[in-house]
Amino acid sequence: MEMRHDPILNYKRTVLIVDDEEVNRLLLGSILEDDYNIIYAENGREAWDVISEKTSTISIVLLDLLMPEMNGFEVIKMMQRNVITAAIPVIVLTSEKAMEVESLRLGAADFISKPYDMPEIILARVNRMVQFFEDKQVISSVERDELTGIYTKRFFFKYCEKLDKFHPDVKTDAIMVDVDHYGLLKELYGNDMAEGVLRICAKTLYLYAGKHEGIAGRGEEDTFYAYLMATGDHTELAAELNKRVAEEFPDTNIHIRVGVFKRESRDVSLLNSFHYAQIAGDTISGDYSALVAVYDNELRNATLFKDRLIHDIKAGIETGQFVVYYQPKYAIQGDRPRLCGAEALVRWFHKDFGFLTPDKYISLFEQNGLIQLVDRFVWKETAEQIKKWKDRYDLDLPVSVNASRMDLFDPKLSDVLLEITKAAGISPQDLHVEVTESAYAKDQDRMIEAVKKIRDNGFAIEMDDFGTGYSALNILCSIPLDVLKLDMSFVRQMESSHENEMMVDIILDMAKMLGVEVNAEGVETGVQLDKLKKLGCDMVQGFYFSKPVPPAEFEKFMEKEIREKSE
Amino acid sequence: MNEKTERLKALGADTDTGVKRCAGKEDLYLMLVGKALADRNFEKLAASVGAGNKEEAFAAAHALKGILSNLSLTPLAVRVAEVTEKLRGGGLPSPEELSDIENIRTGFIKETGDKQ
After folding, report:
1. Minimal-distance CA residue of chain A relative to B58
2. I need a labelling partner for B39 at 20 to 30 A (CA). Which of A125, A228, A341, A385 fits?
């Protein structure tokens, strides 16, 4: 039987043997004890107590029919009443032909006649029944991952559940293995090489799991899981993974990271266990000196904090805890800096935590899609604010809002934006949409398509954080774009070396050729401003002029602009 | 082969099959034979037949049949099976049949040296 030859699954299942005669019990026990854990019961009542208490650990019941207290028929009937106990196969032990039929009719899976057949036959029948019922529970699709040959995610988790069943009280380790920056790796070295790395990881993890009483499976693209009965710190695994990959690809610098969650009790679900292992592993992303991270108290608190934020977001939006601030943008090429627009930025004043900086929740909400709630709130709020300002001031100030990758995946995005501007009574030209450079990292074509659609509807597109990702400069030619926002890191480094200044110069030249305006972010000093002006930068934004401020404060900048314009 | 097993064989028990059924473990086989020969159902059978309780007598005989045939204590198993069938058909075994069973049982007990 394939199952029994699989070293990964060769765990002892549990058999419940029910017979009022000790001789019969021990006889069966002696046949099955090498392959199974045995629990004995002397009568139906005892059997039912065991079944109710250990439902999840019992793989099969061998049941005598004629017994005092409660007979075998009654036990079968009781088991049939509940879907979970009904799923445990029962083999009836009997010397009465008539009862064989009756017991099968009641729901027994098979019968063994007395005197018993030879041990091999009994063992084979029990094995077959156990496997048959387990297979019935795992509805087969694909068990092995095509690329790596280890379990697919679905089967991996199914088998984890089985391991739990066979080892209900064992402390286990949930392990996550991830190829750091896999997307970049693929881009740099090509698909074949990247897949080679995955194969090595899968094989190494598989062997390790075999040695540590566990199983291995493939999660998402470059993520692997192992579930181990033999616990440890797994530094050996991490070292082996990185060593094997380095040996196979000597001219590269690939970081394989391992996250560990120690599952001390079954109070934490399997899925959460691997989620925590992932969280631990993610803390060392990009840190080449760290190979293993174990989920600990600190991480636990951080996770709880995040869960809390996720929980609180909706109420936060509904009860006005989210507020939109505006940071002015200035055109710098004229004789005086001229207020030419603003960026809308969200601020969360949490009812218990107070002001939360965006780094605490933006990327969190981007991961789980909740960012869409925040984004839409900001779009609507901003559109309404623009309308108020248009009514009150004679100034043409487009305000840019952020759209995350998630938003771009939404096919209704451009309709939503149009509806919002229409409802507020402004035109699409009043609202700019900022898309971060990194949003284009995956599914580039789809992203470009989505952005094109918005732009065709009249919304200007600004590329945020330009220079922070790893996109080549040629991405600028393929993406429809109106404004390029130069990341603040360029502005800061500009002063430190001539090369950095040249880099900014090249970007500005290229943008000019493409007919795209450039807005430098994070401008803090007059020196920076002068330099950018000299290099031909169109706009700046940053603390030199103002931090993001509430609408009432922003109005002071508008009033000042109106005064200066008329002078 | 254990001396006791030899003696059981001489009395007509199919010890080869019996030991095989115990996954080849002879010690276990002998231990179970000891238990079977001391089974309370022998006494229960005699008592319930004496009291005319056919139902209880059948249950006892039926249980014994299962045990004895599993251990291939053939001469004893055959006689207990006959009694079981008689009880199933609504009859009562004769005192001779019962003493016959008792005698064979005593013989087996003597040979295995297991007495309780």
Report:
1. A66
2. A125
